[in-house]
Amino acid sequence: MNTFKTIALATTLLLSASGFARAQAGLNDLEVAHSAYTADLIDIEYAKIALAKTKNPEVKAFAELMIRDHTAVNEGAGALLAKLKVKPQENDFSKALQAGATKKNAELNGLTGEAFDKAYAANELAYHQTVNKIVGQTWIPNVKNPEVKAFLEQALVTFKVHEDHAGHMVSALK
User: Fold this and answer.
1) Across the 174 residues of the chain, what is the mean pLDDT of every consecutive 10-residue run?
2) Taking phi first (over 0 means left), then psi (-120 to 50 degrees means alpha), and beta for anything else, what does residue 19 get?
3) Domains of the chain: residue spans and CATH
């Protein structure tokens, strides 16, 4: 399967599996916080799989970046929630994200070598495109708490860099 078809398939699966429409339905700030935290944890898990499987230095460096950056974002989010004295709320969207990730983890774990590297890169591109769209077009405009909104805006800057990096990685692995 060529890289474009892989990206298109990954994006389609992520959009349907994650319940993109539910993201539009108006999660409250605490549900957004839980969903964002879950999305970060998912990407950390994908990166851990990559570190265990890849021999490609670019893929390995990207996976290390994902672990570092997404861990930092989650630590920052945790600190903000502690400051605000609130707890994130699990919701249907975060559950759907996790269900989709379970399937993707199984798929990635079933691949090796170049096939793994290409699938991981394509998934990272599709994942960041989708999450960035949700964060930028749905969550940021609808979050009520200004500190949570500012945090998401800051995180989105990082995630857009990840999307660009993933796009370069996909191109390099053709």
Assistant:
1) 46 47 70 94 97 98 98 95 93 91 96 97 96 94 95 96 97 93
2) left
3) 3-18+27-172 (1.20.1260.10)
